[in-house]
UniProtKB/TrEMBL annotation:
Belongs to the aldehyde dehydrogenase family. This is Aldehyde dehydrogenase (NAD+). The active site is at E247. Coiled coil: none annotated. Keywords: Oxidoreductase. It comes from the Bacteria. GO terms for molecular function: oxidoreductase activity, acting on the aldehyde or oxo group of donors, NAD or NADP as acceptor.
Length: 477
């Protein structure tokens, strides 16, 4: 088995070391060996991007459209193959993996169109005979650091707009999931990009990530990951006045009111809390339920958890795959013990032994919890949710907003009045009514408030706010 190399300056290059990529559904299955870059490799990638920046910054919209459309078309044509790779290395079920690959294709195709729609303004000056033009220009070179839970979609929604607006890219994927990142880089290597415009440097965050953060030539850093690391990214970028975009954690509430359709509420809660093994920053881990429906909701959730099939991500009929790795599984199990010690009652949460050795656990639901418990304050990032009983809508809204996070917030209700009030008053960047909190479209802005996000929004036309800078020009003909 050969080592899959880094891609720097238009060439495939060895790393300082290499690391095996192991399937969390089957620990005997080694997907491949992937190069690990060091600071020298990052420096080479930055130099390559610097050399390419002037030419790519001045490329035509048609050039950028052609590249992004090529990538989008190939991902779409190979979505089943890439979805299988994704599920194999990250642990999402195969339908989820194929769905994520499809979304990545759609993102590239969307930004192919955006490359043709970069707009400016022309205004009259207050001075006679003077014209004013306002244009958007690339920020230059963008460092992109992505997490393991969406190994092709999140790289897509960062790389595609960066290229669409004329920036060069130095890309570091999560160390746990290099396979999808390498496959995406291989497609980009054949898309017609000039050498150095796109660079892939795989490896550990403490080495590769740090080198990217401290590279003076990088005018902007887009990061998705933990709050703790995000704060470090922000501080480092501020120290050298680089532009920064952070997407971090969530402790998302899903409110269930007495008037809710019980089936809708349960389906939304199960999807939000447990699908993708709960490893989504938009997952609902706090289920805030009013008194009148509380007992029926808990029983229905308990019954549903008992029927969910946990198995190999690639197996037909699997609803929940494995946790991504041993460290994440330990963290999940540690939080189950924390919840029990806090007095919460636990349904499910068993460590599962299946025919293949993998990181499997049964979805866990805590009941009889309060919002001040650690399990309701800290992001667990696994198939673990808590039910919080409240008196009425007003208390539900207050509890929903009582968190240091503010990414996604949901409600199940048949009341238009209360749904409208919740949309207005939920302190979150995204609000869902009678829908799971963990489902967003690719053509609209994504992001949150408080400790969940910092900087301009991602995706959709709002991506231009981060990947471009505004120039105002005055002309006297």
């Amino acid at each position: 088995m050969g080592v899959q190399q880094n891609y720097i300056g238009g060439k495939w290059t060895d790393g300082a070391t290499a690391k095996d990529n192991v399937n969390p559904s089957d620990l005997k299955d080694v997907i491949g060996s992937y190069a690990q870059a060091d600071a020298t490799g990052v420096a080479a990638a930055v130099d390559a991007a610097k050399a390419a920046a002037h030419g790519w910054n001045r490329s035509t919209p048609q050039q950028r459209y052609d590249v992004l459309e090529f990538v989008g078309n190939e991902i779409m044509a190979r979505r089943e193959e890439l979805g299988r790779l994704l599920s194999r290395e990250e642990g999402k079920t195969l339908p989820e993996g194929i769905g994520e690959a499809t979304r990545a294709a759609q993102i590239f195709k969307f930004f192919a169109g955006e490359a043709l729609r970069i707009q400016g303004e022309k205004l009259a000056s207050v001075r006679p005979g003077v014209e004013v033009e306002i244009t958007r220009e690339p920020v230059g070179i963008v460092g992109i650091i992505t997490p393991w839970n969406f190994p092709i979609a999140i790289p897509a929604w960062k790389i595609a707009p960066a290229l669409a607006y004329g920036n060069c890219v130095v890309f570091k994927p999560a160390d746990l999931v290099p396979g999808c990142a390498w496959a995406l880089a291989e497609i980009l290597s054949r898309a017609g990009l000039p050498e150095g415009v796109f660079n892939l440097v795989m490896g550990r965050g403490s080495v590769v990530g740090e080198a990217i953060l401290n590279a003076d030539a990088l005018g902007a850093i887009s990061f998705t990951g933990s709050v703790e690391t995000g704060k470090h990214v922000a501080a480092t970028c501020a120290g050298r006045l680089a532009k920064v975009q952070l997407e971090m954690g969530g402790k998302n509430p899903f409110v269930v009111l007495d008037d809710a359709d019980l089936n809708v509420a349960v389906n939304c809660a199960v999807n939000s809390a447990f699908f993708s093994t709960g490893q989504r920053c938009t997952a609902s881990s706090r289920l805030i339920v009013t008194e009148g429906i509380h007992d029926k909701f808990v029983k229905a959730m308990s019954d549903r958890i008992g029927t969910l099939k946990v198995d190999d991500a690639l197996a037909e009929g699997t609803e929940i795959g494995p946790v991504v790795d041993e460290n994440q599984l330990k963290q999940d199990m540690d939080y189950l013990e924390i919840g029990r010690k806090e007095g919460a009652k636990l349904i499910g949460g068993d460590r599962l032994t299946l025919s293949k050795d993998g990181y499997y656990m049964k979805p866990a639901l805590f009941t009889e919890t309060t919002n001040d418990m650690r399990i309701n304050r800290e992001e667990i990032f696994g198939p673990v949710a808590s039910v919080i009983r409240v008196k009425d809508y007003d208390e539900a809204l207050a509890v929903a907003n009582d968190t240091s996070f503010g990414l996604s917030s949901g409600i199940a209700t048949t009341s238009l009045k209360l749904a409208s009030d919740f949309k207005r008053n939920a302190e979150a960047g995204m609000v869902m009514v009678n829908l799971p909190t963990a489902g967003v479209d690719y053509h609209v802005p994504f992001g949150g408030r408080k400790g969940s996000s910092y900087g301009p929004r991602e995706q959709g036309r709002y991506a231009a706010e981060f990947y471009t800078t505004v120039k105002t020009a005055y002309i006297q003909p």
